[in-house]
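User: Design a sequence. Structure:
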């Protein structure tokens, strides 16, 4: 078994995204998409469409599709994001909150 690598120290600040961050999150999503993502591998989509799909999904998440979006800022730029959605039926039926991580990405340079 390989040991878990050390996490490097960072000065990144994790904050809640604001609507004004949507374009920057879209740009990050378009370049950080995994070439093995379901959209990149789905034969029903042209391979070149995957970055646009992820960018739209991430931008719409910041604009209200997600319940919460966190971004990591480093030296004034967004270098990562996570989008979260609350699964409402869980609270209604089980009496507890359940959130789903929809998207996350880190800038390749970060």
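Assistant: Done.
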């Amino acid at each position: 078994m390989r040991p878990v690598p050390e996490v490097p120290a960072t000065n990144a600040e994790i904050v809640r995204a604001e609507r004004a961050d949507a374009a920057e999150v879209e740009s990050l999503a378009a370049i950080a998409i995994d070439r093995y993502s379901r959209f990149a591998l789905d034969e029903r989509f042209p391979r070149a469409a995957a970055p646009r799909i992820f960018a739209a999904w991430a931008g719409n998440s910041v604009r209200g599709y997600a319940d919460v979006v966190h971004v990591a800022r480093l030296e004034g730029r967004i270098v990562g994001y996570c989008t979260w959605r609350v699964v409402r039926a869980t609270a209604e039926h089980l009496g507890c909150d359940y959130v789903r991580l929809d998207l996350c990405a880190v800038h390749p340079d970060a």
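The beta strands are 13-16, 68-74, 77-86, 99-106. The CA atoms of residues 82 and 88 lie 19 Å apart.
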